[in-house]
Amino acid sequence: MTDPVHIVHMAHLVNPVRCPGDPALAETQRLTFESMRCAAEMSGDGVRVELLTAQFPEDHPVIPDYFRRTSDLERSAADMFPCSVPRKLPLLRDLLDRLFAATTARYLVYTNVDIILHPSFYRVVAERVRSGLDAFMINRRGVPDHYRAVADLPEIFGLRGAPHPGFDCFVFDRSLYPNFELAGVCVGIPFVEMTFSQNLFCHAPRAALFEHDALTFHVGMEVFKPRDPEYFAYNKAEFWRAMRLLLPRLDSRKFPWGDRNVIYRMWRWGRHPAIPIRLALLLEPRRWRAPRHTAPPPPETSPRRRNSVRA
Question: What is the set of domains in the chain, with CATH numbers?
Fold first, then answer.
């Protein structure tokens, strides 16, 4: 029997949405839900997993009974600014507040609702937090969009998939969350991944980025989706509002590849959709003023595997 002291207790929240006008998303959500259920069942001894949702009242019908619903969301981005076509997109802060309040789990997990988990996901997460990581992100693998049925899951898990550079799976120690600065950033629009990741880079003493794991999957190979210009501008402004609050504590040496030479790191950051090069340039002078021995360790990055699929 596992000693309770050594049990890794984690809580994982997703934001389900009832989407009668988007059958593809409805199908993908069913894959996500079932994959989370299976991964929780296969988490093994010494791991306790809670599956949670944050939702609007109208989303209740699509939520399976093996999830525990947190309190219903009461506002959306449409309440935050005037827009020509209101969209009921939750605020990241509202989702994570509910995750933090609904559980005593030490480790909190947030993924987009279209992210499918490998059956070993929670076992691997537990191994990594036991190794001493305070926070990490796992990049997804893209699979062809003809996979739509729950019966397709075993075949999806057998694929290596194509890499995706963005961040949509976050694991972090709950002690970090009270320090987060999220402004009014809403989900479903770019800048969510930037806001979330910069909070982890800022606050986690030991963070990591796992780029090449086949632990999370997304149906569809696209990297960039069409942008809603109004919501894009709103989220961009909210992202920079959050960054202004974080700026005194940010250090680009804690970014992925932050320990590499200036040419290499600027090249990597300039090509990465979730690491804003403007922010990196703002932080660059600090690297030259700070004594070399005070440099914090950069986030670990997973080594590229020989059998990884290149985009």
Answer: 4-301 (3.90.550.10)
